[in-house]
């Protein structure tokens, strides 16, 4: 009996973190309107219809690379691939993680052509803005490089979804953070790109009573496992909304 109890306690000790994680993910939600990208993703739809293939480049900095997550599979590009693979049976789904920690909008725009040449994709999810805001990059410089990158990427035939800033303490402390948001919103409209409103989604978590510790690392900047996985799942839903909507 003692041995049985010891084994049972050991099993429960292993299971409890899994149960806690599952319960935590029930908090992964947001208002439906925040999952409307504002685009029908025509290039991605055509690739799915003609080639039964959906190739996505996740272009970004440390939050794209998965910094802060305890396992690479928790990073939002990996979560996106798993979600789309499950939702699109018979479609060859590939999400290529091209996040490089510390990069800003200029560095990402400059590697747009080689990234798309090496990995021809029908959709690019471009995560940017956070590093520009916390480093106080001049707004006109941010806007110029963002538009240059979008113009180049669109000319190469891909759909784009811009993923804007994170709602985390390091960004909230920036006085002109909403100006970077505004630039991204206007650029997305001008170039026919989608906009994944990460800032508003995460802000809604906080305003609904979720503490920062639930989704942000102690550094006040990078997402933890919950934050990464939830963003990945919500991004999946947003992309599916665009692919299956009118």
Could you describe the 3D structure shown?
This protein is an alpha/beta fold and 246 residues long. It has a single domain (32-244), classed as 3-Layer(aba) Sandwich (Rossmann fold), CATH 3.40.50.1110. The protein contains 13 helices and five strands. The chain has a five-stranded parallel beta sheet with strand order 2-1-3-4-5, with helices on both faces. Mean pLDDT is 91; it is low at 4-23.
Topology:
Elements: H1 2-25, H2 42-51, E1 53-60, H3 62-65, H4 76-87, E2 92-99, H5 105-110, H6 112-118, E3 123-127, H7 130-134, H8 139-155, E4 159-163, H9 169-172, H10 177-190, E5 194-196, H11 198-207, H12 212-215, H13 225-244
Parallel strand pairs: 1-2, 1-3, 3-4, 4-5
Outline of the structure:
The chain has 246 residues and is α/β, with parallel strands linked by helices. The chain has one domain (32-244): SGNH hydrolase (Rossmann fold, 3-Layer(aba) Sandwich). Helix content is 56%, strand content 12%.
Key attributes of the depicted protein:
Rossmann fold, 246 residues, alpha/beta, five-stranded parallel β-sheet, globular
Global structural class: alpha/beta
Give the number of DSSP strands.
Answer: 5
Outline the biggest β-sheet.
5 strands, parallel
Helix content bin: 55-70%
CATH-scheme architecture: 3-Layer(aba) Sandwich
User: How many DSSP helices?
Assistant: 13
What is the total domain count? 1
- Supply the CATH class: Alpha Beta
Task: Say what oligomer this is.
Answer: single chain
Largest beta sheet: strand ordering = 2-1-3-4-5
Poorly predicted parts? 4-23
Strand content: 5-15%
End-to-end Cα distance, whole Å, is: 62 Å
Write down the Rg: 19 Å
CATH homologous superfamily designation: SGNH hydrolase
Q: Based on CA inertia axes, which overall geometry fits?
A: globular
Give me the CATH fold name: Rossmann fold
Could you spell the SSE succession in H and E letters?
A: HHEHHEHHEHHEHHEHHH
On the 0-100 scale, what is the average pLDDT? 91
